[in-house]
Amino acid sequence: MNNIINLLEQLDFGSSVAENETQNLQNYFVNTRFWRQIANDRYDIVLGAKGSGKSALYLSLIGNAETFRTKQNIILVEAENPRGDTVFMLLNAATRTDKYENPNKEALIEEDVVEFWKLYFLTIMVAKLRTFRFKGKHFTVIESLLENVGLLPKTFSITDAFNNVLHAVKQIFFLRFFQPEIEVNPE
Fold first, then answer.
1. What is the mean pLDDT of residues 163-179?
2. End-to-end Cα spacing for the chain
3. Residue 172, SS3?
């Protein structure tokens, strides 16, 4: 009986939070039918309650990025940091308007959020393709444009990409509502 108790005490089922298991998740992640459907591009969006396994699916896909690239010619791009401040949390903070606490705070409107996502995904895709020394006429033009406006620094991180794109979108937001007037006095 003591042996069974000792064995049970030594069992490790890992963390209940996938984000804390980035190193060991592949050792005990079960490739379910749903995971295979995601891996085979049958689904693009995964919805689920907290703790339902969304992060485990994401981390498993990212953990298999090299296999996808070599066997299926698919390049996976990390678009989210599942630990700490996620992009979704940061964007939620940037779009929230709290008129009572900070009436002068400029919040993004729906059109800005759409533009943010387009520019964010473009930026992280170009940054990823750049790591493979990807070349092409249109790619080079887009890469140069993103570099010139400061969205593709030499060192790249998801958080920096988020902040840079958010800043760019806020600049566009500002310019949209900025309407200077000039009066000319002939005297």
1. 72
2. 104
3. helix
Q: Where do the structural domains in the chain lie, given as residue ranges?
A: 1-76, 80-179
Query: Residue 159 region, left (φ>0) first, then alpha (ψ -120 to 50), else beta?
Result: alpha
Alpha carbon distance 150, 152 (integer Å): 6
**Distance of alpha carbon 176 from alpha carbon 181, whole angstroms:** 14
User: If we measure between CA atoms, which residue out of 170, 186, 187 comes closest to residue 178?
Assistant: 170
* Average pLDDT for 92-105: 57
The structure's pTM equals: 0.70
Q: Are 146 and 126 in contact (CB under 8 A)?
A: yes
Confidence at 99, pLDDT banded by 50, 70, 90? very low
Higher pLDDT, 16 or 69: 69
Cβ within 8 Å of residue 91, ≥6 positions away = 113, 116, 162, 166
Q: Kindly compute the dihedral angle of the four CA atoms of residues 20, 22, 24, 30, in this order, to the nearest 10 degrees.
A: 100
Average pLDDT over residues 156-183: 73
